[in-house]
Amino acid sequence: METTHRVHVGDARELPLADDSVDLVVTSPPYPMIEMWDEVFAGLDPEIGRALDAGDGERAHDLMHAVLAEAWREVGRVLRPGGIAVVNVGDATRSLGRFRVYDNHARVTEAFADLGFDPLPGVLWRKPANSAAKFMGSGMVPPNAYVTLEHEHVLVFRNGSRREFEPGADRRYEAAYFWEERNDWFSDVWTDLNGARQALADPELRERSAAFPLELPYRLVNMYSVYGDTVLDPFWGTGTTSLAAAVAGRSSVGVETDPDLAAAFDDRIRDAPGLSRDLVADRLAAHREFVTGTDADLSYESAHYDTPVRTKQERQLRFYEVDSVTETDEGWRVAHEPFAP
Q1: What is the C-alpha separation between 119 and 285, in angstroms, rounded?
Q2: What is the pTM of this model?
Q3: Which CATH number, 3.30.200.20, 3.60.15.10, 3.40.50.150, 3.20.20.140, labels domain 2-338?
């Protein structure tokens, strides 16, 4: 199996892609009203900068989401019918005149619904916190303390009716997940993503990109696509979504405005062979641990691994690992081989 991975330096509001050309979108845009993104948004619409300078947070928030809405329209154009769009976004708290929360997840949901997407159940992802403080404001004295925002929203949208596959599609059944993975992954609260594999060589790039942990897009790519699909991230950053797609046996396309961030991907994609093997070995080991400790009825045998499985749909599950990475004029070509434990 072979996949391709491309990044375009450009604007998410003008995606260099054909209509209906991608199967899944996984992205995390700049969060409106988070101060680190003020300059980016003001560069896209100078009225945003003027609203911020005037202390008009409500208008700035509206204008920032108007900018994002142009990118979401492009997502609607390039995503195939039945394709899934997943947006990781956090709300913001800020004092402009008065302290308030800016509900980014609600505004993104509204924008996709306006485009005709069906909102699906999403996830609250609780991020690891470095601070022991669990409050903002006046501390121990009511009523002027505020709840801290320790989670982000993983919003899920479908572009029209459910995607159809040919009967018995091998690449779909090979891309199945284990029963116990399904139970964890499709829970509406995630607390187990710690970002351990997220380290970047350049800390400045990490800060500028606000990259999410690899386990987040890796899980989503496995949940909402099959082998050989193409995954788009229109707010690409350092390419974490593309790396997740590569190790999961999917192709990818990214769009990023910062050429320095785009250039940093070369070092990351070259780590894909070892990373892919570690990830699938961990998944298989976790399944075998589940088998050892469960009282559930495991009445089926895996066709490719020496282990029982819970359901008929898991029997053809097959892992692939990255065998080689080759740089081309258009990006990177990744060869995959079946995983042999």
Answers
A1: 34
A2: 0.92
A3: 3.40.50.150
